[in-house]
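Quiz preparation item.
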């Protein structure tokens, strides 16, 4: 089992896509183990996107991701990192296939609504950064909650 860090970015929150996005992860069979809305500090945003620090779009990206609330999530499951990346789709929404989140809702690369960790080391790093308090360890068993 893996846990991945997923974040609805300010454009996704502003457009009212939080519920739609959460539903896709739930329907897929991933387990929600962390969820909160935060307004990211410049420091945390720069740390999160440090790998892109030298790219021309970096200043705009930091301004964008700190411009309003983001929804931080941790999702667990078998191969959760790649499963989530497949649900999200490629970076540019105009090139993303229909059926993916970016393919269904996104047009511009800078407004692609959602972040997902791309490897085990980045997932560990990002989960520690955004969820320093840790995530929740719980057993999911929907049938046992149908009858009391
Ligand atoms: P990813 O989110 O699909 O992993 P990355 O290449 O890691 O894509 O880029 C991180 C984020 O930086 C993207 O999701 C997007 O928000 C932003 N970004 C990447 N390339 C560009 C660009 O050319 N212009 C504007 N923003 C970009
Ligand atoms: Mg990336």
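Solution:
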């Amino acid at each position: 089992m893996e846990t991945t860090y997923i974040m609805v970015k300010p454009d996704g929150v502003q457009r009212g896509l939080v519920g739609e996005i959460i539903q896709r992860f739930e329907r897929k069979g991933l387990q929600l183990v962390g969820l909160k809305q935060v307004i990211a500090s410049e420091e945390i945003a720069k740390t999160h996107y440090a790998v892109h620090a030298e790219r021309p779009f970096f200043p705009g990206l930091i301004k964008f991701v700190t411009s309003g609330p983001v929804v931080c999530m941790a999702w667990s499951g078998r191969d959760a990192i790649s499963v989530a990346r497949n649900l999200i789709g490629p970076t540019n929404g105009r090139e993303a296939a229909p059926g993916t989140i970016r393919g269904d809702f996104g047009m511009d690369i800078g407004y692609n609504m959602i972040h997902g960790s791309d490897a085990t080391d980045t997932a560990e790093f990002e989960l520690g950064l955004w969820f320093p308090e840790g995530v929740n360890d719980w057993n999911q068993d929907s049938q046992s909650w149908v009858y009391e």
